[in-house]
């Protein structure tokens, strides 16, 4: 597939360019996000104090904003860093973790969307529905819904993703059993990954960091989002297959995901990617 070649080229570009990816993220998964950025070939920096975010983002290739653990000062830093990134044409990705769970989270996600031009928004179905304006179900910061594999629901979710991407002039990526990635015109679905990944906190955050790495190494936001999501899904499959089914568990799985990203090559992408374009 031609799309696989483009993903491989972008992966090679990360390893050549070693993009600096500035994260303003949450303290639950900050270490995982840093390590997966290093594993794929990027360089992570985690800086959120308002006194340095403008300077730090100015040095960066991309900016990851993740609202997983909010406080009022970090929200100001997110918006300030995002505006500075926009001035410098540095791509910004938003992970609206838990949007819909509380009004504060929902309002914060909308403030960022209104104040910052985003290259990509990546979330689960509940989060994207909330941003779109549809009532949705969350459990804490986790989605109680997932993209269906078939039927009318999948058609509706694709239409919602397209409409939101067109409205916001950004790439919208919904991750779940089936991933939906669209810029409002072209739409990809991907179905890599394994259900056990949902048992490890931070797999979504790590996926967002991978997209940040791809964004910092090219100029095609849609391709970057697709590449990050497919890379994470393939890594999850490889990690699960490598588990000792008697003694292995979610702790080992997370380490194996990092290993799989570190060793990700064109062979795995060609042989394993499950991508459809429409």
TrEMBL record:
Transmembrane segments: none annotated. One of its GO terms (molecular function) is hydroxyethylthiazole kinase activity. SUPFAM superfamilies: Ribokinase-like. The keyword Nucleotide-binding applies. Its cofactor is Mg(2+). Keywords: ATP-binding, Kinase, Magnesium, Metal-binding, Nucleotide-binding, Thiamine biosynthesis, Transferase. InterPro entries: Hyethyz_kinase, Ribokinase-like. This is Hydroxyethylthiazole kinase. It catalyses: 5-(2-hydroxyethyl)-4-methylthiazole + ATP = 4-methyl-5-(2-phosphooxyethyl)-thiazole + ADP + H(+). The gene is thiM. The lineage of its organism: Bacteria, Bacillati, Bacillota, Clostridia, Eubacteriales.
């Amino acid at each position: 597939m031609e799309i696989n070649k483009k993903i491989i080229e972008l992966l090679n570009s990360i390893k050549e360019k070693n993009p600096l990816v500035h994260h303003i993220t949450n303290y639950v998964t900050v270490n995982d996000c840093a390590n997966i950025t290093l594993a794929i070939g990027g360089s992570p920096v985690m800086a959120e104090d308002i006194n340095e975010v403008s300077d730090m983002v100015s040095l960066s290739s991309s900016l990851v904003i993740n609202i997983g653990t909010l406080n009022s000062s970090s929200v100001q830093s997110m918006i300030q860093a995002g505006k500075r990134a926009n001035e410098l044409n540095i791509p910004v990705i938003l992970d609206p973790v838990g949007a819909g769970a509380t009004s504060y989270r929902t309002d914060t996600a909308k403030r960022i969307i209104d104040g910052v031009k985003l290259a990509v928004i990546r979330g689960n179905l509940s989060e994207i529905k909330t941003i779109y304006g549809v009532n949705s179900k969350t459990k804490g910061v986790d989605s109680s819904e997932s993209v269906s594999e078939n039927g009318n629901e999948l058609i509706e979710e694709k239409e919602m993703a397209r409409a939101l991407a067109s409205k916001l002039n950004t790439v919208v990526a919904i991750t779940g059993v089936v991933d939906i990635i669209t810029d409002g015109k072209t739409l990809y679905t991907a179905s890599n990954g394994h259900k056990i990944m949902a048992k490890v906190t931070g797999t979504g955050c790590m996926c967002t960091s991978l997209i940040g790495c791809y964004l910092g190494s090219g100029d095609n936001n849609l391709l970057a989002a697709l590449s990050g999501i497919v890379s994470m899904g393939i890594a999850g499959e490889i990690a699960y297959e490598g588990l000792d089914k008697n003694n292995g568990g979610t702790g080992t799985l997370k380490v194996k995901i990092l290993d799989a990203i570190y060793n990700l090559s064109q062979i795995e992408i060609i042989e394993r990617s499950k991508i459809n374009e429409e």
